Amino acid sequence: METLVIYDIVDDRLRYKVAEACKDYGLERIQYSAFRGYLTHNRLEELQKRLKRVLGKAKGNIQFYPICEKDMALSRQIGQSLSYPEFEEEPLAISEDGMSPITPSSAQSRPVRFPTKGVRVAEDSVTPGGSRK
C-alpha cells in the first residue's frame, strides 16, 4: 500500500535518523519532512516500531497515512518538485558535540571528530574504489 510519512521534529539529529529510516524502507523524499512509497502492512509496522524507538520521548511527532490505489490515482501536484541534495549526502563524521552528522557541505564550517570506536567495515562491503556495495 502506498504510504505517506510526515514528521515534525525539533532535534536535527533525530530528524536525520527519521529520514534515514524512511530511505532504508525505500520511501522517497517528497518534501523536507515528508516521504512516500510502497510498504506492505508488515513493513509499515516495522517502520513504525523503529521510528517510535528513534523518537522516544523527544518533542515531535511522526504521522503515517496509508493511501489506497483509488485515492492515489486522484493525487495531483501543482508546481515542480524541489530537489534536496543536501539530504542525500552521507555523513562523514560526527560533530564535536557527538550528536550531529557532518556531511561534505557542512564539514567546512564545523569542528568534527571522526568516529573510531566501534566502527567496523566488512571487507566484502567495500568495492576496490572505496565505495560501499
| Number of E strands | 7
CATH class label of the domain at 2-67: Alpha Beta
Percent range for helical residues?
Answer: 10-25%
Radius of gyration: 17 Å
The tally of helices reads 3
- Proportion of strand residues: 15-25%
CATH A-level architecture of the domain at 2-67: 2-Layer Sandwich
Order of helices and strands: EHEEHEHEEE
**Structural class given helices, strands, pairing?**
alpha+beta
Query: How would you describe the shape?
Result: globular
Biggest sheet, spatial arrangement of strands: 2-3-1-4
CATH fold-level topology of the domain at 2-67: Alpha-Beta Plaits
Rounded mean pLDDT score: 78
Largest sheet: 4 strands, antiparallel
Indicate the low-confidence ranges by residue numbers.
Answer: 109-127
Distance, first to last CA: 28 Å
Word description of this protein:
- The chain is of the alpha+beta class.
- Among the domains are: about 1-65, Alpha-Beta Plaits; about 90-115, no CATH class.
- Helix content is about 25%, strand content about 25%.
- The chain has 3 helices and 7 strands, in the order βαββαβαβββ.
- The protein has helices spanning about 10-25, 40-55, 70-75, and strands at about 1-10, 30, 35-40, 60-65, 95, 100, 110-115.
- The strands form 2 sheets. A 4-stranded antiparallel beta sheet has the order 2-3-1-4. The protein has a 3-stranded antiparallel beta sheet with strand order 6-5-7, with no helix packed on it.
- The longest helix has 15 residues, at about 40-55.
- The two termini are about 30 Å apart.
- The relative contact order is 0.16.
- Mean pLDDT is about 80; it is low at about 110-125.
